[in-house]
Every structure is written in structure tokens, then in C-alpha cells.
Batch of 4 targets.
Target 1
Amino acid sequence: MLAKELDMRIVGFALDGKEAVAQAQTLQPDLILMDISLPTQSGIEAARQIMRLVPEAKIIFVSQHRESVVIETALAAGGWGYITKMDAGRELLPAMTAVVEGKRYVSSGLPAVDSTESPDA
């Protein structure tokens, strides 16, 4: 799906949280898709570290977790977006577009969270 988007290019892939941090520091991506449940280090902790190392990167969490406390924690860790894996087929590209434009994006079927402020506000 992402390969079909002409304005987007996949520059890296990580299998765990520590590798995600290292890849982000090396590759300096504009946008990062991050799972929460990662081996060696959670996606939330990896996001916190990435935000310190690559503050201009924008993170979208793609996760099976639907609990509002998890969503709020992920957004507070530096996430610009949060979508469920179940909704990714229809919401990933709109989420990516919104986040690249500097807007927050949270899957429509998730519990209400305060998603009006951008992470750097």
C-alpha cells in the first residue's frame, strides 16, 4: 500500500524498540510508524527516546491496543497519530497525510482522548 504512494518512501524497518531508536537516529525519517508491543523496549519508550534524538520526526502508533490510557500515553510520548491495526487498511494513509500536514489523527472508533493538541504544542 505504501509503495503505491508516490510522495512516500520507506527508508527503514526495525524489529524491536531498540532497533527503532537506532534506525531513527541514523535515518532521520520524517514519519515513523510504530507498534506499541515491541520486543526489548516498548514502542512508547522508543518514541520517547526518538523524540529526544530526532525531535522533528512524527510518529504514528499502529497498535491493537484500544484502551484510552494506552492511547493517551502514546500521544504524550510524542505520537502525532494513533490507529488500530484493525482500521489500518482504511485509515493508515489518511493518518499519514494528516500527520505530515501537522495535524493529530486518532482512529474514529477509539475512545475519546484529548487529541486536539499537537505533540509540540
Target 2
Amino acid sequence: MGAVRRIVVGVHGSLGSLQALRWATEEARERLVPLAAVSAWIPPGGDFAERSHPSPYLRKVWQEAALKRLTDAFDDCLGGIPDDLRVRLFVERGDAAQVLVDVADQPGDLLVIGSGRRNPLGRALHRSVGRYCLAHARCPVVAVPPSALMDEMRHGLWPLRGRRVLVPDLDVPELPGE
């Protein structure tokens, strides 16, 4: 990988994107380069529905909601936007994969994305942002895997199903009057 001049990270609030944000922030600190955090948004109902009945007010509401999700991700992940880094926030309308590839178009960019695991239905219904970025980005792409804790959280309580839990016998003194 050549000289990295800027790190671009996709953030939408999922656990995988928070892991990518954490990794990208540390990498930007180590390399002393700016961090560009990108959040893409599409109107509820899709672009076709919004274009047939455009509303500048609703566009502003949706864009502000996307900006709030982006700043909330920094709050949840890092306790706020870091003071020791140059951070630029991008809130762009469009498909997340295309927006990320478009923003990470400068020489020296490094694109960081979260890689999560989807169930078969999720794979069938949604295009993979990671695959699109890997195929179309003009810069190196790093796909940050989910942490072990995130992987466990994804499975919920299913791994515990069917297991017996041993609880030690405790000598509990009897209360007076029993």
C-alpha cells in the first residue's frame, strides 16, 4: 500500500460500521492523516417515490437525521468526535456503496468498511456494500471484521440453548420466622 493521505470510513450506526470507525480512527492517528466519515442516505420509500413528490422540507429532515446518526456513531464508539484528528463529516444522498466509492476518489485514500455477516435472506434482499467497494474503488479497501463480542451478540442467546448451567449450592441462612 502506498502513502495514505486520507482515511475514508463508511458509517451508518451498525455494530460493524462502529468497529470500522474505531479501526479507522486509530489508523488515522497512527498515520497522522485526516479522517473522512461518510454516511449515505436514501429517502424512505426510495428515490423514485421522493422524486415523484419532491419535498425540500423532508429532504432537509432526512439529511439532518443522517447527520445525527453519524455524530451519534462517534458518540457511541469514541465518546465524540476526536479532538486530536482532522475529521470531516460527509452526509451524501445515494446508495451507500456508490457514495463511498465516489468520496474515496483521491490519490492516497484508504477506504475502510465494516464487514458483517448476513443471514441468507439478508444476502438475497440487499446488495453487499463491501463487495461493491472492493470491485469498484480506485483506492485500497480495508474490510474490518466484526469483533468476537459483536459476533456473539449477533447470535443472541441461541448458543446457550440446550446447555445446562451449573449453579453452586449456596448455604442460605433461614430468616427468623420461617
Target 3
Amino acid sequence: MKLLPAAMTLPTPLQRRLETAAACLMNPGQPCTVDFSTPIGEPALTEPDSISWLVFKNPLALFVGGVAAVLLELAEPRVREGVWNHTTFKSDPLRRIQRTGFAAMVTVYGPRNEAEALIARVRRIHAAIGGETPDGQAYRADDPQLLAWVHATASFGFLEAYNAYVRRLDAEECDRYFAEGVTSARMYGAESTPGSQAEMATLFEKMNGALEPSPVLLEFLDIMERTSVLPSPFDRMQGMLVRAAVGILPNSVQEQLGLKARWSLASWERHVIALLGASADRILIRSAPAVQACRRMGLADDYLYVGASARGSNKN
């Protein structure tokens, strides 16, 4: 793995605002509370030297990748019914975003006992959700096939956002990233989840005829443009970041869902977002789960900001 740029902090007022925003976004309220810094030494489901720990520390990749993942989820009609009619996305989108982001952070960075407890809660919720699509297709939220698609879309979204707007990982790193997610996917109840880029490409081919456009996709995009998720002054760029999420979907999927023309980015916008993504990869947010988890494991706050060759000596 290449040596990464050194970590940095922003001027105090802006840094303080980012720290507060990160703490709020990762604290959606009871029962969703976890101290990522304790218990000392307890491992997560993935290792600190994993690709996942690198990717998930970047807030821009998380936002852009998360929006892309939800678009792919909502393109599958059975998943769309479960997400749109059995969650608070329409009535309280910010809280839903907080809970989803929190679950991702716990799965990647949380102490193993907390991650296992959260996954168990999610599985109990899924077990109670089911119904039929308007055209009569039965669905259940705990269907292993649907869970596999949901997990795959999240893995794809976060990785593609990182590759497109932060820094491009090589093929071996991308395959490692997908493989790292298989264990947690199976714990959530998913089966046959992609363990490599090639397997992700095969899944897209398999799903080609199953994805469809719908008014819900446009409603979701509208919600994401007008719901303030990012702290000021970055909230002014939220619409651009939503379009960036559309832009990382495969071209065939963008066309199939009718999103390519209206939601495309200008070349200068892509350049700006790439600059922001690269900068976000260097900004050390001490209240973020990634840094707190490093402390739990006895690692320096900037552990995730150096290459693998330097990490052996980068201890507290």
C-alpha cells in the first residue's frame, strides 16, 4: 500500500464544527449509542490494517457512496417497498441517515460485542418486515437474497466513491475490501455476497433485468438535496455531492433508471469534489469512530493516515 499524505487539522473554529457534526451524526440516540474507544483492546469485525478502515474514515466517500447505495437498493422493487414503506426515510430522513451511518460505523469500527449486538437487533427488526410489491411480488426484509443485494450495493457505493473522488485503489486492494465485508454480510443474514470486484460485476449483470425506475428514486434524490446533513459551509455543496453519487453508478444503470441526463456532473464539479475528497482523507477528526477505534486498539490517532509500511512503528 502506498504511503498516504500526513494527517492535518483545520483552523480551530472549522475543526470544532466538524468535530461536533461528526459526533452528532454518529449519535442518533438510544438504543444507538456506542463508545468506540472502549473496551481497550477489543477487536472489531475487521482489522485496523484493513482496506475497510481506510475507506470508511473518509466522510465524503461515506456520503456519496451511501446515496449511491440507496439508489441501487430502491431500484430493486422488493427492496424499495421494504425501505420506503417500513422506515422513517420520508418522515424523518436525517434520523434514518444517522441510524444507517451509525450501523455502518459499528460494523466496521465498533468493538466486536457491540457489533454483534447491533446486528442481532437489526435482524430482529428485519424478521418482522414483509409484504407485497404493487405488482404482487412477495418480499421479506430478512430474505437472504435481498440482504445480499443491500450489502453489495453498500460495498460498491463506498468503494466506488473512494476510488472516484478520493484516491484510486489498485485491483488487489479492491478485492481485499470486498472480501473483508463477507463476514459481516453473513452475520446480517446475507448469502452469496460479492467477495471481489469480478463477483460484483457478475452480480450487476445478474440484476440487469431486475432494476427499474420509479418516482421513489426521484423523491429520494429530492430529499437528499434539501435535507441538511453536512455542516456549514459544506452543506452548500450537498446537491453537487448527490449528483456525484449518481455519477458513480454504472452507466447502464444510470440510463436504465432514467438518471443520466438530469443528474450528471460538470467536469469542473468532478474536479472540485475530487479535491474535497482528497482533503477529507487527510483531516483528522478525533471524535470520529475511526480515530476512537484506533485509540481502543492502542494505535495513534493518525494510524489510518500512513501507509502500511509505516504502521508498525505508529503506536501510541
Target 4
Amino acid sequence: MNFYTVNIDLGKRKRFACGCFSELFCEPILTLCSKCGEEYSNTDYDKMFADKAWHVGMYMDRDYYADFASSQFRPIVSAKAKRILAENCSNATDFGDIKMVSFRDLTREKLKQIRDWAGYADTKKIPNDPPQYYRLLLKQGAELDFQKSNIKLTIDCTTCGRKNYDIPYSHYGPNGSEQIYIIESTWVGYDIFYAEGKGNTLFCTERFIEIYEKNKLSGLRFEKIQTV
């Protein structure tokens, strides 16, 4: 079995749209853990994104759309991709709703907030009629060989639940995927999945790539990784 990292393709000649949360979140309240001494936040946006009951409002930052898009490092999918994944990868995938926000929905005050939010968006490019997207919710599907991948678990606190990994910067370079090792015997059969220790990085099998290419989906690129 061959495995790959799944990366968002932002487009070469013309950049694909990214999803942006239309609400500005309050600053998280940091608490000092009595055991590990690290500050942690109860505002866990990864858990909120995966919570199907959480209300998510999102606008797209331009009007050139791919089937797979990034929303602040979290994956979202078009209605077409959702249908194909549900038909072919139902054991691995789930989906959360998104309230798609158009330029017409944004007040002057909200547009100013968006502009001021670290210069996050060119508001002139926000489309009036964005297509429907959905949150792509995935599971842990295999384990990485931390030693071979040079990933170090630096914090594993049973009190606050915080886990922190030291990941080499070289993992994100042009040949970074060659330095990631997946333990094939731990693979549970999912064709697209997460692996603990690599944050929001997605992994997939060659079967997923076949499904992706056969259905002429867009927005992703793949890099082969090592297996042990």
C-alpha cells in the first residue's frame, strides 16, 4: 500500500478561493496547568470545527472555486466532493454544515473588522454568490513512526490534555514528505485520514487519488511518503 500527504493546491496561474470565518473570535482565556506548567486554552478551534453542532459562518476570499479548499488550515469541500466522498469513503469521512456568507451579507462594520483582522482579506474580492461548501471531518487512520520521522512528543499532560510535538521545519520544505514515515501495520483502512503528531496534515492512499482523478476533482496535490 502506498501512502501520500494531501496538500491544498492553491492554483498556479489563478489562485483558488479560500474559506474565511466571518466571525472574529474573542481572545482565548489562558489557564496555567498545575501539572505541566504550560498555558492552555479551553477555546480549541480544531474541536469546534469538528463539532457538527457548532455554527460556522464563512465567506470565500475570491470567486475561483475548487472542490477542496482551505479554511484557515482546515479542509472544506464542495457539494460535488461531499457526494463523491460519501459514496466512496463513507467509513472515513463526515461533514459539517457551513453558512456561506456573501459580500451582500457583510455590513460596513463587519467589512472593517475583516480588513483590520491582520489585513486578512481583500474585501473587494469577496463574492456575492459563493457555492455551498461543507466542513470535511476526518478520523485518525494510522500512526507515524516518530523516531524515523524525527517528530518528538515534548508535552503529554494527563491533567490539561495538552500534547505538543516538535516537528522539523524541513518537513514543510519541497522534499518534506520524504521525511515522514507511516507505520503500515497501524493503518485502519481509511483512504483519507489524519495521523497524530502532524496537526492538520491530511494523509491518503493511492485509492483515494484514483477516486479524485476519476471524478475530476480539483484543489489537491499529493506527495508520496515512506512506510515502515
